[in-house]
Structure formats: C-alpha cells, structure tokens
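Let's study a protein:

___
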Amino acid sequence: MNIEAYILIGGRSSRLGRDKASVKFDGVSLAERTANTIERAISPSRTTLVAANEFQLLSLAGIELSLPFVFDLYEGRGPWAGLHAALANARSEWILVLACDLPLISVELLSLLSEMVADDLDAVVPVQPDGKVQPLCALYRVKSFLEIVERPLLTERPTPPLRAVFEEVRTRLVEFDEYKDLPGSDHFFLNMNSPADLQRATEIIENGQNAR
C-alpha cells in the first residue's frame, strides 16, 4: 500500500532549550533518526517534514537531511496544526504521522502498525502502556480526517486533546498487550521534552534496552 510519511518537527521546545529536530541523539539528529526509522519500517513513497515556521528549518542547517518540507497552515495551534498540514499536503490515501521527539519508536512497531491498515478502517493508533492514545505515532486515512482536523482550527476556541480526532471515525486501537513483546516496548513513547528526558533516553540506548 502507498503510504506517505510526515515527521512533525514543530513544538516550542521550551524546556529542552533548543529545537528538538536538531538535537543529537545516538549519533544523529532527532529528525534524521526519525526519518531513518520510518524508511526502514515502511519504505514510504515520500517523507516530508512538517514545521511550524521557517525558523525551525533553519535549526537543521548543516544536517544531511534532504527532505521536502511544509509549514503549518494555522499558526500557533500546536499538534492539531501539524496534523492538518500533513493531511492537507498528502498525495496518498494513507499517511503515517510521527513526531520527531519520540526517538525510541522502533522499526518493528511502525511495521506492525502499518500492517494493520485496512479498507474498513480510517486510523491505526497505538495505546501507550499508561493507557493513553498516542496520535503522534499513527496512521490516518486522509479523506476521513482532513475536515475533522480542520474544523476546530477554524474557530478561536482552544482545541481539545488531539486524541479527540478518533471519536468520529473507524479507529483500530492497538493495545499495549499487542506489541509488548517487541524489543524496547516499555520505552517507545518516551517524549523528549527536557534535558532529563534526553539523558534517560541516552541511558536506555547505552544499556541496550531499546531496539531500532
């Protein structure tokens, strides 16, 4: 199946102190690591960076990552805007959306999720070990989501949690029990928000507790 991939590099990175996409982790930037993982997992027809603005792209200067990019169409609306930009620019029926600040996501997990895409579904999304749905590591049927995601962006009201997008569509929730046997599953959704998170993720890699 033809699947495009979109890597979200937006976000304020206020606690980390620098743009997340350019942060070096395990020898490469988070953006490069995410792109490499996606390529190995699903060989997408196209991989595109989604940035909030041009300044975030400038942070990638000097990094050997020649990928196309798009910008949020709704400024300052967080992950809703990132997901919307991906959907609005998609050329394929399905897209994979993955945030670059989830560097412990593995090839095996993405492969498993992509294998669950089906004609009678609109989304495939994992449920974290803590029971929360993770919409920034998920597969979306474009025509089913574009209007749903854009709707709250057309108003001035605060957007709800992004997981709300799954309430109106046929969603395959992939429970933790379904992927817990994959190497590193306990750490897949460690979010790189702070220097402490970066240190913890580095220790996990150095101790061989995660597989790519």
Remarks:
- The chain has a mean pLDDT of 91.
